[in-house]
User: What shape does this take?
Amino acid sequence: TRFRNVTGVQTCALPILSMEVQKLALAAGASIEQSHLDALCVTGGHDVIWRLTDLIAGSDTRGALRFLHRLWERGEDPYGTYAVLMHFIRQLTLIAVAANDGLPPSAIAKATGVHPQGVRSMLRLASQLSLGSCHELLQECATIDRGLKSGVYSFSSDSMTEVEILVESLILRLSHVRA
Assistant: This one.
C-alpha cells in the first residue's frame, strides 16, 4: 500500500524526488531552467504519455519526434511507446467520431470514457479528422499491430529498430491525417 505524507507526495517517491532535486542543484547552480529539467530529470509513467500525446495533439510533429528520441536515448522502451501511441490513436478516433456527431466536450468525455482533460487536449486534432481518415488510420494501426504480433516485423530486446520506425511513421501519419 502506498501512503501519502502531508505534502501529498507518495512516500515511496520521496527518495527519487530528493535525488532529482540534488542533481538539479548541482548542475544548475542558482537558477534551474527548463533545459536543466529536460537534460537531467527522468520523466516516467503518465508524464511521458501526456507530454508525447500533447505534442502530437498540438500538431507539433517535430517536437513529438524530438521528445520521442530523447525518451529512447534515456532508455524508454520503444514497444511501450508503441503501446501508448496505439492507445492515444484509439482515444483520438473515438473523440473525432463523437465530435463529428456534434457532442460538446463534456458529453464526449462521458461517451468515450476519456478523461475530460484528455478530451480537451485531443479535441483540436480530433476535430480535424474526417470519419474516413479515422477509418484509414485505424486500418493502418490494425495492419501494423498484426505485423508486429505475427512476425512480419522483427524486433527483440536487443533490436527495436523496426518498432522505432513504426512509432515514428505513426506520428508522421498523424501529422498528415486531416479532414
About this structure: DSSP finds nine helices and no strands in the chain. The first helix runs from residue 14 to 28.
